[in-house]
Amino acid sequence: MEKIFDSHSHYNNPAFNEDYAELMNHLTESGVGLIMNCGSDVETSIISQKQANACDFMYFSAGIHPLDAHDVTDENLAKIEQLTKDNKCRAIGEIGLDYHYDDAPAPDVQKKVFIQQLDMAVRLNMPVIIHIREAMQDSLEILKDYAGKIQGVIHCFSGSAESCKILINMGFYIGFTGVVTFKNARKSLEALKIVPFDRLLIETDCPYMAPEPCRGKRCDSSLLHYVAQKMADELGKTKEEVIAQTFENAKRLFNID
Question: In angstroms, rounded to a whole number, what is the distance separating the alpha carbons of residues 249 and 173?
């Protein structure tokens, strides 16, 4: 059986507290080979570090999510940078811009923290995991200055095929979640079809984004079989081909032997 690489998860979320150990055993039995466990602030990045160091098949990323950009200090950023020294840390993220919520940090605050972490990634020669929600134009404006200087993935891609093409031309990988299985996924599927096969990643964003037929339930990496099958159907590939290619793509991006 081909092994799945879940390139974006949040096993640091309290939703997994009660049955975490049991779930990790289930994941290996269900064909999950590797997991990227993503931080979204200093606290969750530290939890991700501990989880990754206790689990052979888990790596982690450290970063500050745009919705947590309110009170970011130089000390916070220094803690994120310190976490990147751990050999299990393979990316800075998740970072980016999110204008969805009325009480989100102001755009200028989010942009400053995003740029600070992009600059950190360039300096440390590390890939980035980027979150973009209802902020595509500002994100493209910032990222164009980093084209050729940085590698990374636009995770849970929700933009247009046109935006996707621009990001691919900048050198980014594109990640898709269980959203591609939803009935209203036309926009995501249009974008999926233009992503080069060697730049495609598969992810859960768990505990969120459970695919059909499990929508509304807690998501975990074993459910990526549904996502891989949907991708395969849309791309004219087999499920095994999608799983194998996305595994290799994620290993390449995150510099995993």
Answer: 8
pTM of the model: 0.97
Query: Based on the number of CB atoms within 10 Å of its own CB, is 145 exposed (0-12), middle (13-18) or buried (19 or more)?
Result: exposed
Angle at 215 between CA 214 and CA 216, to 5 degrees: 115
34 three-class SS: strand
Contact 152, 129 (CB under 8 A): yes
What does pLDDT average to over the chain?
A: 97
pLDDT over 90 at 217, yes or no: yes
State residue 71's pLDDT score. Answer: 86
